């Protein structure tokens, strides 16, 4: 089956150390009386080099090392994804950029016009990740008071209108959240291709939205049997809409090293730092901010009782949930030698994952490790695929 690899850009600072550490790259650390030492960690507006320059290094390293694209997470504390991908697209040749945004952020026509302009300038290298917020508290902080399930209803209308504008130069629509009276994408903007549409979310509302609209349904890593169960559920839901081509992606960190012991030592270093800074089981402290479903391994954190033993957090061979325990999203990492990472990727691919978002810490160095020792194994399998583009019927060529 198909396989493709994207990486992830850290839009809210590097994480070689835990968030807020002055040794990290980027200017997200602000500790009174402590000097930042990471690259561009003392940036002031107007300086010659900014954090965007570091992100550019990662993007170029990803492309040099054979990644097909880069995911950018949208968080209130980070750089804005669409702006970043627009800046970086001209610094790379073929790298696709996955920009995460909420329908709340744009009107449908603004999203269409902006995307068409981007696609024309970059050769159709934009991918959309439609998100709808996993925290009621954070949604209200940014001014969005619509309840959880209704946000998915709004998102469904949003994409109905987007697709209508894209396919017609005179589109009419009347819905609960949006309407259109003859607008549409006209020549020459309509030469561009509609971005591939990705989305995530494990609630029933999120799954139904993805089943109707998503080219790729994205998941966080769990045990393989749990991923297989979710894939089966999503295929069944998509079939109700006559959609047989839905694909699946998974976001998972990596600690890939020459030997398993080297990888274990690095994972242990993170746990030890978290214990020193009293950040073990940090997710429990933020439980009130989150409305998204807890994954099975997250429900097991309470049983760890402050453990700092790296082996206590393996939920499957080489699949380590320790990052989630200390507050580093997406929470799970493949930990092991290069050969072991390859085996786990093959295992998840065999159960239906087509698109892997792989990243590690620091992102720049891990892009080279993965590109030099993991991705080459899959070269022939990747070359046999069609380009990762969306068709006019909003299906995936992959």
Automatic annotation (TrEMBL):
CDD domains: Alkanesulfonate_monoxygenase. This is Alkanesulfonate monooxygenase. It comes from the Bacteria. Keywords: Flavoprotein, FMN, Monooxygenase, Oxidoreductase. It comes from Acinetobacter stercoris. GO terms for biological process: alkanesulfonate catabolic process. It is an enzyme of class 1 (oxidoreductase). Residues 51-354 form the Luciferase-like domain. One of its GO terms (molecular function) is alkanesulfonate monooxygenase activity. Pfam families: Bac_luciferase. Its EC number is 1.14.14.5.
């Amino acid at each position: 089956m198909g396989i493709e690899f994207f990486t992830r850009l850290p839009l809210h600072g590097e994480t070689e150390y835990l968030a807020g550490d002055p040794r990290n790259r980027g200017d997200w650390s602000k500790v009174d009386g402590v000097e930042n030492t990471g690259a561009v960690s003392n940036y002031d507006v107007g300086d010659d080099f900014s954090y965007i320059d570091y992100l550019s290094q990662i993007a170029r390293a990803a492309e040099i090392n054979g990644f097909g694209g880069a995911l950018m997470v949208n968080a209130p504390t980070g750089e804005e994804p669409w702006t970043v991908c627009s800046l970086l697209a001209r610094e790379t040749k073929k790298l696709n950029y996955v920009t995460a945004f909420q329908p709340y952020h744009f009107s449908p026509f603004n999203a269409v016009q902006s995307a068409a302009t981007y696609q024309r300038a970059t050769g159709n290298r934009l991918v959309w990740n439609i998100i709808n917020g996993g925290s009621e508290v954070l949604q209200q902080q940014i001014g969005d008071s619509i309840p959880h399930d209704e946000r998915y209803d709004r998102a469904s209308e949003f994409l109905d209108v987007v697709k209508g504008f894209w396919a017609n130069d005179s589109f009419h629509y009347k819905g609960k959240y949006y309407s259109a009276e003859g607008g549409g994408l006209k020549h020459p903007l309509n030469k561009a291709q509609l971005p591939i549409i990705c989305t995530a979310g494990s609630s029933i509302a999120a799954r139904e939205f993805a089943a109707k609209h998503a080219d790729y349904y994205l998941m966080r890593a769990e045990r393989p049997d749990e991923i297989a169960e979710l894939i089966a559920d999503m295929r069944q839901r998509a079939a109700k809409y006559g959609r047989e081509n839905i694909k699946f992606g998974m976001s998972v960190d990596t600690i890939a090293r020459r030997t398993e012991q080297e990888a274990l030592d690095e994972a242990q270093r993170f746990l030890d730092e978290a214990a020193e800074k009293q950040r073990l089981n940090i997710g429990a402290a933020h439980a009130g901010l989150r409305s998204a479903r807890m994954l099975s391994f997250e429900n097991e954190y309470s049983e760890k009782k402050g453990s700092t033993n790296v082996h206590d957090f393996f939920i499957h061979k080489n699949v380590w949930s320790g990052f989630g325990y200390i507050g580093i999203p997406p929470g799970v990492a493949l930990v092991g030698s290069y050969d072991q990472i390859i085996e786990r990727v093959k295992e998840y691919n065999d159960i239906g994952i087509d698109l892997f978002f792989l990243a590690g810490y620091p992102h720049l160095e891990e892009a080279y490790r993965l590109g030099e020792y993991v991705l080459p194994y899959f070269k022939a399998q990747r070359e046999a695929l069609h380009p990762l583009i969306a068709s006019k019927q909003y299906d995936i060529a992959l």
